Amino acid sequence: MASPFDDLDATASAALVAGFGEAAIIIPRAPAQYVESAGDADRDQHKVQGIFSAGPARVSFRGQSVGVEMVGATQVATAAAEFWMSAEQVAALPYAPKKGDLLVMVDQPGAPKYAVSARQPTDQGDLTLHLLVEDQA
Fold first, then answer.
1. Are 23 and 91 a contacting pair, CB within 8 Å?
2. Cα–Cα nearest to 22, from 62, 53, 44, 67
3. Cα-to-chain-centroid distance, residue 51
4. Cα–Cα distance between 92 and 100 in angstroms, integer?
């Protein structure tokens, strides 16, 4: 039985996608180790709507420290890219995106292609894809 929260979540998600959403194409790829992934013949490309976000991030490495020396941790500046899809969009997908699939942003000409590095579904049915820039060479 659906709760009133489910309706509220669907309404809020639709408003977010309408305001900030972008079209992307998921290109399924078969997993392969040590070589470039080939297309997955069992799954077709699928156009999706979601919210893409990319920005700076920091990763802290907790290393060894002696006494009060090295009180802070080593930090590496990096960038994080994610693509969020609402529960409605995820339910409409004919398959679940997998690690290694390719994501191409339709509304961003010249944008890099992204490989899915991790999936993060929630208990509300929405899904965040963590992305890595695909090597263009």
1. no
2. 53
3. 9
4. 21
Write down the pTM of the prediction.
0.80
Tokens found for residue 33: 């180790």
pLDDT at 59: 67
Name the residue type at position 122: T
Segment 34-51 mean pLDDT: 85
Region of residue 125 (left: phi > 0; alpha: psi -120 to 50; beta: else): left
CA distance 126 to 116: 16
Contact 18, 102 (CB under 8 A): no
Within 8 A by CB and 6+ apart from 41, the residues are 30
- pLDDT above 70 coverage of the chain, percent: 85
Strand ranges, E, within 1-136 = 22-27, 29-30, 38-39, 46-61, 74-85, 102-105, 114-121, 127-133
Task: Determine what percent of the chain falls in helix, strand and coil, rounding each to the nearest 5.
Answer: 15, 40, 40
In tens, the pLDDT along 58-117 reads 666 665 555 555 555 666 777 789 999 999 999 999 999 999 999 999 988 888 899 999
